[in-house]
Each structure stands twice: as C-alpha cells, then as structure tokens.
Design goal:
This protein is about 40% helix and about 20% strand. By secondary structure, the chain is α/β, with parallel strands linked by helices. It is elongated and about 85 Å long.
Length: about 260
C-alpha cells in the first residue's frame, strides 16, 4: 500500500482531496486542514503544478483531470486495503459460541477455540471476552456481544503422508502394517484424502475421512482453527499440496507448520 508507506504520496493525496472538496484560495487554508506548514504546502503545490496535478484558476486552486484521476486511484486502493484488512481481522461486535458451562444473560465470558469450535466460559479469563446475550446451558449455543481482544489461536500442524502413485501400484505397493506404524507418530484431528489411492487406503484402514471434497482448502481452514490435519496424498499429488500450503503461508503472519512424511 504505497500511500501509507510514502509520506510524500499521502500528503499529495490529502492536498488533492482538500482542493477537490473546498477549492481553497490560499495556502493557509490548505495547510491548516492537513496539518503542515504554509511553507511545506507551498513546496508541495509547486511540485504538484509541475507534475500537472493542480493549477490555479481565478484565484482558486483546482485539481486537473490528471490530479482527479490520481486521487480516485489512491482512494480506491485505500478502500480495497481497508476492506481486505477488516476481513482478515474478522472484526465483529457479536459472535456465536458454544457454552462451555452454564451461562446467564449478561455474564462476562471468556472465549476459547477448542477443537476448531469457539467455546464460551462464564467468568473464565481469556485474551478475548464479551457478554452473553442469553441464558445458556452447557453445550448450547450462545450469542456473545461487546467483544474485546482476540482469541488465542495458533495454526495446527498439517502432516502430508506421501503414498505411492497409482502408476507405482497405489495401495498394492503399500503395507498396511507399515502405514499403521507411520500413523502412530502423527497427531491429527482431521483427515483429508486427495485422490483414489489415498481414498482407497483410508477405506482399507477403516479411517474416517473428514475432507474428500476440496481437501486442501478444507485442511487449511481447519489448521487456521487450530486443528492438526493429516493429508494423505500419492506421490504425484505432493507438488500440488506443497505449492498450495506455501501459497497460503505467504499470506499469513503466523504460517501453518507442515511436514511431508514418507512411509516407513
């Protein structure tokens, strides 16, 4: 976001905005509105006139078409940046949670993420708190208002178990005992399968599959809710899986920990 990083650029935009909104007649009125000295304003105006962004007509400062275009462009960039940031922060005033114990209306509650579910406890200290809008018994849903803070949450680990490809024999090339041995060292709460080989293996092991449609997107979402995920994928699917995880991590401040593990 160039405008927020570049002081000169943001000052130009503020001057253009003041000129478009109020068509000022002198530098003092501009400088008082944007909070810089008259001398500083004069230097900016001189530069902006040379760049073809502003001009003076009949004693009034006016933005040129080029200046208006620049202003609109920067405003759209700022709007998109703010909207994207708000979505990422998930700023809300009210949320739904599961009551972790019996809660009465207007109780202050602490919010916790447990196994991917938001849980509220009456009077329990938490980085994120709010107030119950209704009475709720343990296990019932409850609306929480006046939220403050953020729920303490770290991404869960994704383990990718590499299997032979269909061309290499698929499940025919796998020892179920070897797979069971490999699984003993992996902690996971959700299982994703990506192809026919991994689906067949899950059935052979009588394992419950949680994500078979959109498995990568679902695995990422589960990880961001704090769940550990096991993705079973044949060898030719591994590059796709790793590329997706790296792409997601490039957008995250707290990246998803992941490991590709071979059988054995």
């Amino acid at each position: 976001m160039r405008m927020l990083r570049d002081l000169r650029e943001s000052t130009k935009v503020l001057i253009l905005l003041e000129i478009v909104e109020n068509t000022p007649k002198n530098l003092l009125s501009i400088s008082s509105k944007i909070g810089i000295t008259v001398q500083g304003t004069s230097e900016y105006i001189r530069t902006m006139r040379n760049e073809g962004l502003v001009k003076k007509i009949g004693g009034e400062y006016r933005a040129t078409k080029k200046g208006v275009d620049l202003l609109q462009e920067r405003m759209v960039e700022l709007k998109d940046f703010v909207e994207t940031s708000m979505k990422q922060l998930e700023i809300v005033d009210v949320c739904g949670a599961i009551a972790g114990d019996d809660i009465e209306k207007d109780d202050e509650v602490g919010l916790f993420m447990e196994d991917g579910t938001l849980v509220a406890y009456s009077g329990k200290e938490s980085p994120s708190t709010g107030y119950a809008m209704f009475d709720a018994r343990k296990g019932e849903d409850v609306a929480v208002r006046d939220l403050t803070g953020m729920v303490s949450l770290r991404p869960g680990k994704i383990t990718v178990l590499q299997l032979p490809s269909a061309q290499e024999g698929g499940t025919r090339a796998i020892s179920l005992e070897e797979v069971r041995k490999s699984l003993k060292g992996i902690e996971f709460g959700k299982l994703a399968v990506t192809d026919a080989v991994s689906s067949s293996l899950a059935r052979a092991l009588d394992m419950k599959v949680d994500f078979d449609f959109a498995p990568l997107a679902s695995s990422v979402e589960a990880s961001l809710l704090g769940l550990n995920v096991l993705i079973m994928a044949s060898r030719d699917e591994i590059p796709t899986v790793v590329t997706r995880l790296e792409s997601e991590n490039s957008k995250l401040e707290d990246p998803i920990p992941y490991e590709v593990k071979a059988l054995g």
